[in-house]
Structure formats: structure tokens, C-alpha cells
Amino acid sequence: MANYQNLGLTYNRDTLFIGSHLGSDSSVVPLWVAPCKCELISIKLLNGAAIAAHTENYGTLTITNELTDASGTTALTSDTTKTVAVTALVERTLTLTSTAANKIVQRGEVLSATWTEAGTGADLTNASIIIEWAPQANK
SS3 string of the chain? Predict the structure, then answer.
């Protein structure tokens, strides 16, 4: 975990390597456990290979808050390569939920990642997910 307070910023940045994933498997990957009550600032995808945009053959990355007991179903982001390509080794900022309350994650809640594909969509290759977050009061 990187903490950027010494740069005048008040957020943390965690880079989580998730490896390569076949969209046809659509497996759920445990990603991150909130260390305290925090607000999600951004979630980014960093992939080791380019993924072309395609309206029929595309991938979808969904980040879900699983809560502390795996009962959660709230998607924090669900981004596709339907209209926007992924450039190899360049961070792609994913669109977070617009519901402010869903951006607050309680201590111990688990975020998961799922990559699925439509048609013959591309796979993730040596991918990382980057989570930027800020601690909240009442930790």
C-alpha cells in the first residue's frame, strides 16, 4: 500500500495483481479487504496487453462489494471494452457508481473482481487492479 500524505494528498493507492483471466470462465477473484472505513476514490485497470474495442466481442470487468459475508451484490463499477479499448500498460480509470453511499466501504468488507466476455471477447493478461481510497472517520 502506498500512502501519499507526504505529497499533500490524503488517499492511499493499492495495486493488486490479479494475473490472467479467461472471460469465458467468469471466475470471481477476491481482490481487497477494506482495512478501515473508507471512501473509494477511483478504481483502475492495468492490463499487460491491448484489448480492442468491439461492439459484439468485448469484455466486462465488474468490481463488487461482497460485504463481510459474501452476500453483497452492489457493483461498484462495471466497465466494458464495447466502445473503449484498453491500451497495454496504461491505467484505465473505471467509472465508479454514482451512488455516494456505495463508495463508502466498511472495515472488513471484501471487494471482488469478475471478468466476463461477450462473443469472443478478449482475456485479461497479467492484469492489475488499482484501488485509490481515503480513510473515513469512525474507523
Answer: CEECHHHCCCCEEEEEEEEEECCCCCCEEEEEECCCCEEEEEEEEECCCCECCCCCCEEEEEEEECCCCCCCCEEEEEEECCCCCECCCCCEECCECCCHHHHEECCCCEEEEEEEEECCCCCEEEEEEEEEEEECCCC
